[in-house]
Amino acid sequence: MISLVSTTKVYLEIIKQLREMITDDGLKPGDKIPSERELSERLNFGRSSVREALRALEMLGLIETRRGEGTFIRDFRDHRLVQLLSTFILQDEKAKTDVFETVELIEIDGLQLALRKMKSKDHEELLNWIRTVDVVRHSDFFYRIIRYADNYLLFRIWVILKEYYESLVPEPAQYSREDYLSLAEALAKRDEAKTLSAYRQLRNLSFK
Amino acid sequence: MISLVSTTKVYLEIIKQLREMITDDGLKPGDKIPSERELSERLNFGRSSVREALRALEMLGLIETRRGEGTFIRDFRDHRLVQLLSTFILQDEKAKTDVFETVELIEIDGLQLALRKMKSKDHEELLNWIRTVDVVRHSDFFYRIIRYADNYLLFRIWVILKEYYESLVPEPAQYSREDYLSLAEALAKRDEAKTLSAYRQLRNLSFK
DNA sequence: CCGCAATGGTGGTCAGACCACACATGTCTC
DNA sequence: GAGACATGTGTGGTCTGACCACCATTGCGG
């Protein structure tokens, strides 16, 4: 007897077809996708299976459902993903040190990229921001840095790790305006050694 | 009239209670959680709602369901992280260059950590492996490096990026045994500059 | 023209049914 | 007695149909 049952779970199959449907129809963030009942009919799966697929996508922040209106594609560039995870991960002590360590590595990576990619206009902008802003928040600073680094993937990774990080420490990191200023100046000079040492001073890193 | 309907969606409420249940009972990765039917009864929600909650958690990689057996807590350190995000992002040409760039950064990060953390025993083992193995596959080599770096989170990120990387290039990266050997030797000498230059030569990187 | 009730479409939830699978148990055969 | 087989039970997997809650639109009456 021929197996009519695909080995993959139905809800994953639905997600797959839904994705094809989205690309085929050229749907973009904000657009509405077909209703649950219509998907159920078009794809030949039960509505409950369709809903399971939608819940999975919703949890990932890829879609948004509004009762009485419909289901919409979200701008997945700002999905959360980790908020949930962080509450789970807290227990493992080793995981924490991994998070700290990795955040610092990624930030250094961002600095390295920024070092190569920042234009003088960017440097002016950054310095100006540091000088005029009320208080230099660490996450705001690196938000800018990694933007300048012009690598969206690295940016995403950093944001995710940052969320972990902030869920692990009681209060957000806070260093002095002077530290950020010297960091930004080292960047403007395109001086790698100075940049790294400025970062280390900021973080009070002991290693090399 | 008193609103009996919680404003939050039921499946989120179920996730919340499930989480409490897990911490209260001290369940750990690998442990089995109550069956769908039991959860449905204990929490007073329909089974389909329970299933929607489980699908959401499964999509995040927090649980694993096995037909006929039950639902189990996963080692959340294996969670997807960037996985889904990138499958959507891949279409973008800019995203590809981001992947390449980021993989290289992460590999350098791994090297830096390994530089600080590897024991002499590790160095022996690595050198021996390079000398005796049939062919030095790039992913195998860095698999080891990032293991030595002893940062599970970084390791997970690397594995994910590597998968994308390999899905973007026709054939896996392949460099000469000598290149890996000089890289390993530089590591053994704990010489940072030599290590980085060896990596750059391997990758034929133009930048500093 | 405005305001409002009716209507239809949408997601949200539930109950029940049946299937597919894994495992433990019991039973039969040799 | 030991091994092979059958069976039962519990589990996740899926579908159906029903009903509720909410939203937007329509169209009617003022």
Task: Kindly provide the radius of gyration of chain A, computed on alpha-carbon positions and rounded to a whole number of angstroms.
Answer: 22 Å
Within CATH, the superfamily of the largest domain in chain A carries the name GntR ligand-binding domain-like
Q: Main β-sheet of chain A, in a few words?
A: 3 strands, antiparallel
At the fold tier of CATH, the topology name of the largest domain in chain A is Four Helix Bundle (Hemerythrin (Met), subunit A)
Counting structural domains of chain A, the number is 2
Shape of chain A: elongated
User: Strand order within the widest sheet of chain A?
Assistant: 1-3-2
Separation of the first and last Cα atoms of chain A: 66 Å
Quick take:
The structure is a homodimer of 208-residue chains. With 208 residues, the first copy, chain A, is mainly α.
Q: What features would you describe in this structure?
A:
Two copies of one chain form a homodimer. With 208 residues, chain A is mostly helical. Chain A folds into two domains: 10-78, Arc Repressor Mutant, subunit A (Orthogonal Bundle), CATH 1.10.10; 82-203, Up-down Bundle (Four Helix Bundle (Hemerythrin (Met), subunit A)). Chain A is 64% helix and 5% strand. Chain A is built from ten helices and three strands. The first copy, chain A, has helices at 10-24, 36-43, 47-59, 82-89, 93-117, 120-132, 138-148, 152-168, 177-188, 192-203, and strands spanning 32-33, 63-66, 70-73. The first copy, chain A, has a three-stranded antiparallel β-sheet with strand order 1-3-2. In chain A, strand 2 and strand 3 (70-73) form a beta hairpin. In chain A, helix 1 (10-24) packs across helix 3, helix 2 (36-43) crosses helix 3 and helix 5 packs across helix 7 (138-148). The radius of gyration of chain A is 22 Å and the shape is elongated. The structure holds a DNA duplex (30 and 30 nucleotides).
